[in-house]
From TrEMBL:
UniProt organism field: Streptomyces pini
Residue ranges annotated for the Flavoprotein domain, each copy included: 8-175
Protein name, UniProt field: Coenzyme A biosynthesis bifunctional protein CoaBC
Catalysed reactions, semicolon-separated: N-[(R)-4-phosphopantothenoyl]-L-cysteine + H(+) = (R)-4'-phosphopantetheine + CO2; (R)-4'-phosphopantothenate + L-cysteine + CTP = N-[(R)-4-phosphopantothenoyl]-L-cysteine + CMP + diphosphate + H(+)
Ranges of residues in domain DNA/pantothenate metabolism flavoprotein C-terminal: 189-402
Cofactor: FMN; Mg(2+)
Cofactor note: Binds 1 FMN per subunit.
Keywords: Decarboxylase, Flavoprotein, FMN, Ligase, Lyase, Magnesium, Metal-binding, Multifunctional enzyme
Molecular functions (GO terms): FMN binding; metal ion binding; phosphopantothenate--cysteine ligase activity; phosphopantothenoylcysteine decarboxylase activity
């Protein structure tokens, strides 16, 4: 692929300790076929030097508007970009961007860009939570920028809290989704709060055993990532997954169906949409053995008595009646009579949409791709052919957005 044919990405780097992590984001962008121009601030170069950015990107690196003036870089770089991503975005960079300042090449680029713009903030918790930063973030989001929620974790020194740069691989996924949508509306979930459940619950039998299922959480995580890329505030209730946290999502880890119910109901109180992609166990052991259940020679094990778990999807659908406009989406994993069983479940649960797919040992669970049919309470059927789970996620959000706007 010629350089002229590659998607053009501007990677802005602010002067924070997390600047070194942008090297990994740059590597992912270049190795996936993007033409990347790195525009660091002067402070960023105190953390990672110009030769590193030039070597990794294969493009020249400039920071000031007075360099290569004949090429008018302060206008041209932003005009020609297909995407601008600033990672890390410090509190200072967010403030200058929000107020339209243009005192270096990066802020000039942000003013001239007419493509999607992504900010990945990284700073101490107190700086992220300061009212000034909150106002600046709200301003940028209102103007159409995607400002990813920072991660929670270890910060500089001994501090821990919200403000850590999200995993570079997850920032890359947000960028990839924005570029993949092209001319499609990229911010149609802006200002919306969505809740997504993912993974599979585990119901303890004894200290070492549990009843569970094969769900990996990949479809739920794809739903969370695509919602972030479309501008939503995302709460992800994750049951027993081993996947990295999607950049920008507030992740609530849970284990059992009862824990998932509590977390989802709490998050759904102010949600515009709830998508129940998690595989929630229908039953749990009636009795939890305090010690490991032993195998005894000559004796058959005692039968395991089961009790029903709460029906979280049906409960959400019932509560949504008191929350005007809230959209509830369920998932149905079926092994036979897929559409008939899906229609029956849709009617029984009372949700607005139901994503039904056929599953099995070698189908759907843990795979990178999926196929399904999205059933609507209005009788509609939308087939989604075999493809990436992000494609199914976008179809779900397309229908959710239509229902939210219609309501």
């Amino acid at each position: 692929m010629d350089r002229s044919d590659k998607p053009r990405v501007v990677l802005g780097v602010s002067g924070g300790i997390a600047a070194y992590k942008a090297c990994e984001l740059l590597r992912r962008l270049t190795e996936s076929g993007h033409d990347v121009r790195v525009v660091p601030t002067g402070s960023a170069l105190k953390f990672v030097g110009e030769p590193t950015w030039a070597a990794l990107s294969g493009n020249p690196v400039t920071t000031g508007v007075w360099e290569d003036v004949h090429e008018v870089p302060h206008v041209r770089i932003g005009q020609e970009a297909d995407l601008v991503v600033v990672a890390p975005a410090t509190a200072d960079t967010l403030a200058r961007a929000a107020h339209g300042l243009a005192d270096d090449l990066l802020t000039n680029t942000l003013l001239t860009a007419r493509c999607p713009v992504v900010f990945a903030p990284a700073m101490h918790t107190e700086m992220w939570e300061h009212p000034a930063t909150a106002e600046n973030v709200a301003t940028l989001r209102r103007r159409g920028a995607v400002v990813i929620e920072p991660a929670v974790g270890r910060l500089t020194g001994k501090d821990t809290g919200k403000g850590r740069l999200p995993d570079p691989g997850e920032i890359f996924e947000v960028c990839r989704r924005l570029l993949a949508r092209g001319a499609a509306p990229g911010r149609d979930l802006a200002g919306r709060h969505v809740v997504v459940s993912a993974g599979g619950t585990r119901e303890p039998l004894d200290p070492v055993r549990f009843l569970g299922n094969r769900s990996s959480g990949r479809q739920g995580y794809a739903l969370a990532r695509t919602a972030v890329a479309r501008g939503a505030r995302v709460t992800l209730v994750a049951a027993n997954t081993s996947l990295p946290d999607p950049a920008g999502a507030d992740v609530v880890p849970v284990g059992t169906a009862v824990q998932l119910r509590e977390a989802v109901l709490k998050a759904a109180e102010d949600a515009d949409a709830v998508v129940m992609a998690a595989a929630v166990a229908d039953f749990r052991p009636a009795r939890y053995a305090q010690g490991k259940i032993k195998k005894r020679d000559g004796q058959e094990p005692e039968p395991v008595a089961l009790v029903r778990n709460p029906d979280v999807l049906a409960e959400l659908a019932g509560l949504s009646a008191a929350r005007p406009g809230q959209v509830v989406v369920g998932f149905a994993a079926e092994t036979d009579d897929v559409l008939a069983n899906g229609r029956a479940k849709l009617a029984r649960k009372g949700c607005d949409l139901l994503v039904v797919n056929e599953v099995g040992e070698d189908r759907t669970f843990g795979a990178e791709e999926n196929e399904a049919v999205v059933l609507g309470a209005d009788g509609s059927e939308t087939p989604v052919p075999h493809g990436p789970k992000e494609a199914l996620a976008d179809t779900v959000w397309d229908k959710v957005v239509h229902m939210l706007n219609a309501g």
